[in-house]
Amino acid sequence: MMFERFTKDARAVVRGAVGQCESSGARTVGPEHLLLALLDHEASRGSFALTALGLTAERRESVRRALEEVRRRAGLSRADADALAGLGIDVSEIVSRVEEVHGVGAMSGDRRDKGSWTGRPGFGRDAKDVLEKSLRIALAHRDRHIGDEHRLLALTARPGPSAETLADHGVTHASLTRVVYGGGEAQTG
């Protein structure tokens, strides 16, 4: 695979994402675990970029809380919830009813009380897509190695809850590209 092209920081983010996944009780690493690992990582290009865009420690906690709300909605983005609302389905009402019966967080997919599975979590398709997209972004910018900043750029380039949450906190693909690369944006197919 491309793991040998990862910088030390990028490898730390991947390991951190596995840790985030394990601590949540999930069986599969998703983009949200990569984002949580990025938020925890310090003194790296990705961390400096987040800080430059105003994502202070306090605002990073706000991102964590927003991601927790997404997990409570079974990973549905606001756009997904709005689309379902257009069909007359109230996601908040469904979450409330499920949590009344099964407890808070029941729709998150966490497996804390679901048997004794002890395997290492694998990377889900969406997380693999983020890793592949980070490679394409690095190549498009002619970067020799894949850093945690490329992971962050990939998360903001893909539609979904992670990109939506970051955008709500002022971190978009365009703003992040300007901070990381100083303006010009390469094509990232």
From TrEMBL:
Residue ranges crossing the lipid bilayer per the database entry: none
Coiled-coil positions: none
Annotated signal sequence range: none
Domain Clp R: 3-189
Record's keyword annotation contains Transferase: no
Keywords tagged on the record: Repeat
Protein name: Peptidase
Source organism of the structure: Streptomyces aurantiogriseus
Lineage: Bacteria, Bacillati, Actinomycetota, Actinomycetes, Kitasatosporales
